[in-house]
């Protein structure tokens, strides 16, 4: 059944006769140079994949014959003798080499890395070539990740609920662990390894200290064991108050010797169970979480204490910069920068600071976070969100690669032109060795893992971009579609068009022209721009859109909150002038009069209506496009997406009507000519 469980790792017989023939001619057997756990995992995957895709028995050989695929590491003498070391120096620690070579008159394909995990990644990459119907007759590929730490953050709770999870319960079955190993754990590891993800934080950043007790560490160790052959390290979200909660201490003050000692011992203990433990992820002093500031200490004091405990074992601390408080009456946009920038250079070298892509909170569109480029002495980890907290949960089809790329490609101008966010993140502009990109997972116990067949694409796209942020959103969509649905060109193109347009369409029906944070209170689903009742002002949509009789938008220029001052002058320039500011970001930075004339010649009010209507209408277009695919993909997933698009269409109209009617109470202007006034 086509229930989506296999994700993009579908190995069904290739349905194109010419391609199938080419592959059968070129592939007959495999040979692995050793049988360590990682190479065994690679062999299992390659055999399964090849036998499925080629519908042919693939044998294992000790001899090099024509059509043999030879897999191993650069240290193997045979591989060493037939592959130039040049290739291996480009592959680095985790990269791979795929080369067609003729040796002793035998034509073979070599898949190898400097490490076993590199070879494993190479096997997945090779299978991807077949799944996407590439010509494999003369391969010469070298690929290495641009970013070291490619990480999923699960916001999974101990009771298996998932904060902001929309695809069922947590796949971690804490109750049955460590003795019962769910098949999903391995399939999860396979999926991640196939796209190069090498780190996972298992539990919610709103952490439960119980995760650090022996009972749970043993369960964590069992998962780590399953993941290890696939090159994946486990991390845990650490609750800062753990020394008090589970350690019996009176304080969690990071400068207290007993507290420091408690963490040291805890780290030592963790490594006895999990020798390759990655380290801690920490949310401190944000949204009621405890942290060093609880004891009048700084983020640096807190992070460095944990870093010192982990350092002897090679562990790292990923400390989140997602901080803001209600007591601080300054624009929420500015708070993370103000709190963190002063500590640039003050963190231990095994501390990374994890920054959300934008300054508020995973909105459909945000400008890049001003911390990128502003802390040159500190490695910053990108934090994206796959689970669509603000983008229609797992109900709306929104392909996020364009959102990720928009942020990665943004120019911080911190070291002159072309200091893109991606260069900050990959360490190239500030010369960091330790680099990372993380994403909040959208994975749950639903059969298809993500609750929407297209949400799988976001998981996939994240991994691919963490490996190589130069890939385009279109390239990634193309390969994902071919692996997941079909290689029929017309269908690939149609699906790709839907995917590539989906994010902008969503912005249009939710938050066009730079509107942000106008969604339903607390659950964050649907529109509620009128909401003004939260105990915390900074959770009220009215705080963000500031609509009044004159206009709408948040003035973040020098006449307003002056958040723009946090950007480098050249970057600031893109936003600070009302007339030249890209209209996609307009209301992020300016309070604009309803009658203001936009680039289109329309008034702001008309343009706002135009965007909302275009967004909702475009979902109808998505439906039409999808409907044209009937028969090109399996009925099950076809119908599933069809139903989801029907909901999306209704809800796009809901967003449009709610926002237009509400904002109309301020503009007091009619809808543009020809637009139907919502009831
Ligand atoms: O987006 C907000 C969410 C919280 C989340 C927080 C965070 C884990 O609404 O649910 O808490 O961000 O990123 O810490």
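Q: What amino acid sequence fits the structure above?
A:
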């Amino acid at each position: 059944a086509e229930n989506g469980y296999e994700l993009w790792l579908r190995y069904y017989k290739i349905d194109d006769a010419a391609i199938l023939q080419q592959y059968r001619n070129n592939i007959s057997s495999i040979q692995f140079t050793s049988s360590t756990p990682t190479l065994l995992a690679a062999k299992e995957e390659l055999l399964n994949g090849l036998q499925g895709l080629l519908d042919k028995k693939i044998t294992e050989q000790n001899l090099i014959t024509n059509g043999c695929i030879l897999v191993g590491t650069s240290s193997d003498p045979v591989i060493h003798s037939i592959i130039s070391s040049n290739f291996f120096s480009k592959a680095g620690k985790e990269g791979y080499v795929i080369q067609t070579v003729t040796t002793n008159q035998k034509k073979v394909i070599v898949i190898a890395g400097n490490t076993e995990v590199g070879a494993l990644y190479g096997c997945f990459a090779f299978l991807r070539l077949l799944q996407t119907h590439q010509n494999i007759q003369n391969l010469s590929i070298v690929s290495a990740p641009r970013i070291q730490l490619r990480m999923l953050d699960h916001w999974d709770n101990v009771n298996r609920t998932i904060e902001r999870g929309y695809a069922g319960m947590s796949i971690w079955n804490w109750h049955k662990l460590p003795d019962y190993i769910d098949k999903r754990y391995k399939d999860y590891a396979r999926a991640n390894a196939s796209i190069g993800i090498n780190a996972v934080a298992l539990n919610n950043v709103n952490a439960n200290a119980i995760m650090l007790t022996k009972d749970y560490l043993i369960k964590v160790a069992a998962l780590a064991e399953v993941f290890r052959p696939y090159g994946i390290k486990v991390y845990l979200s650490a609750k800062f108050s753990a020394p008090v909660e589970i350690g019996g201490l009176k304080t969690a003050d990071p400068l207290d010797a007993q507290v420091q000692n408690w963490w040291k011992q805890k780290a030592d203990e963790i490594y006895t169970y999990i020798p390759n433990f990655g380290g801690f992820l920490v949310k401190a002093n944000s949204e009621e979480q405890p942290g060093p500031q609880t004891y009048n200490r700084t983020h640096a004091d807190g992070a460095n204490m944990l870093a010192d405990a982990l350092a002897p074992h090679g562990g790292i601390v990923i400390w989140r910069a997602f901080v803001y408080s209600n007591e601080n009456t300054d624009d929420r946009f500015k708070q993370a920068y103000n709190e963190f920038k002063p500590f640039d250079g003050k963190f231990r070298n095994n501390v990374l600071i994890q920054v959300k892509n934008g300054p508020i909170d995973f909105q459909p569109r945000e400008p890049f976070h001003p911390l990128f480029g502003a802390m040159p002495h500190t490695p910053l980890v990108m934090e994206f969100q796959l689970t669509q907290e603000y983008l229609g949960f797992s109900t709306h089809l929104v392909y996020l690669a364009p959102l990720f790329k928009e942020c990665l490609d943004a120019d911080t101008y911190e070291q002159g032109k072309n200091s893109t966010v991606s260069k900050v993140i990959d360490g190239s502009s500030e010369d960091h060795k330790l680099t990372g990109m993380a994403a909040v997972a959208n994975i749950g116990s639903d059969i298809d893992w993500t609750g929407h067949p297209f949400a799988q694409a976001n998981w996939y796209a994240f991994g691919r971009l963490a490996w190589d942020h130069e890939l385009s959103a279109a390239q990634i969509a193309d390969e994902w579609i071919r692996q997941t649905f079909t290689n029929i060109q017309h269908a690939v193109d149609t699906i790709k068009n839907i995917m590539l347009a989906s994010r902008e369409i969503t912005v249009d029906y939710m938050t066009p022209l730079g509107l942000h944070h106008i969604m339903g209170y607390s659950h964050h689903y649907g529109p509620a721009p009128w909401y003004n009742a939260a105990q915390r002002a900074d959770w009220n949509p009215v705080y963000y859109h500031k609509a009044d009789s004159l206009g709408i938008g948040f003035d973040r220029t020098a006449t307003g909150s002056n958040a723009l001052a946090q950007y480098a002058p050249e970057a600031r320039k893109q936003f600070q002038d009302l007339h030249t500011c890209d209209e996609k970001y307009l209301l992020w930075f300016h309070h604009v009069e309803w009658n203001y004339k936009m680039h289109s010649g329309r008034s702001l009010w008309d343009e706002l209506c135009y965007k909302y209507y275009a967004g909702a209408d475009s979902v109808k277009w998505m439906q039409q496009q999808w409907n044209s695919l009937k028969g090109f993909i399996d009925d099950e997933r076809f119908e599933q997406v069809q139903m989801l698009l029907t909901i999306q269409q209704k809800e796009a109209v809901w967003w449009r009507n709610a926002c237009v009617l509400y904002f109309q109470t301020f503009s007091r202007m009619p809808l543009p000519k020809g637009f139907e006034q919502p009831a």
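Q: And what stands out in the fold?
A: The two ends are 43 Å apart (CA to CA).
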